[in-house]
Amino acid sequence: MPNYVSTHWGTYKVSQDITNKIKLENWELDSSPTEFGLGLADAAVDDLRIKQPHVRRGWLESKTKSDAKRGRDEFIAISWEEAFNLASTELVRVKNEYGNASIYAGSYGWASAGRFHHAKSQINRFFNLFVFLIYLEVLLLHIKVILMQQHKHHYLT
Do the strands 54-56 and 75-77 form a parallel or antiparallel pair, or are they unpaired? Predict the structure, then answer.
């Protein structure tokens, strides 16, 4: 069964050649295919592509303390797991310390055209989910307490 990928520029059929290089072809049902998206597979493995997350060494060493190296410091490669952990820890820290309003959930405009690829929409979706999950966690904790109280009351009567 063929695999497909949909982008702002169209839907493409995905395959691999005998060397496992990813190949994109225009989807046969696209009435107006564009050649633009065919280069996406090459861009994904280009030597100029940043292949893993990086973090500024000074920030990693001192986290909440600013230093004079900002803008001149070395960036070091970290794993995706460490990047997710750093980002989530910082989001929770900033939210707990300064509140939701302190997190800028916007964009300065680094977006492709189209609503799905619109950076501000993606950031807003992410932070709305972030805040929702925190409220959901609190709500579930309250429900758990109520159920425990009802359970305790049931056995006492």
Answer: antiparallel
Which of the pair, 145 or 116, is modelled with greater confidence?
Answer: 145
The pLDDT confidence band at residue 116, using thresholds 50, 70 and 90, is: low
The residue assigned the tokens 């999950």 is: 133
Q: What is the pLDDT of residues 21-52, one digit of tens each?
A: 888 999 888 888 888 888 888 887 888 888 89
Whole-angstrom Cα distance, residue 13 to residue 38? 10
Q: How far apart are CA 5 and CA 14, in angstroms?
A: 7
Count CB-CB contacts under 10 A for residue 37.
Answer: 19
Strand order of the β-sheet with 22-26 is: 3-7, 10-16, 22-26
Q: Distances in Å between the alpha carbon of 118 and those of 61, 75, 103, 121?
A: 33, 27, 19, 5
pLDDT of residue 115: 55
Asked whether 12 and 27 are in contact (CB, 8 A), the reply is yes
Would you list the domain boundaries of the chain? 3-44, 54-156
**Neighbour tally for 149: CB within 10 Å:** 10
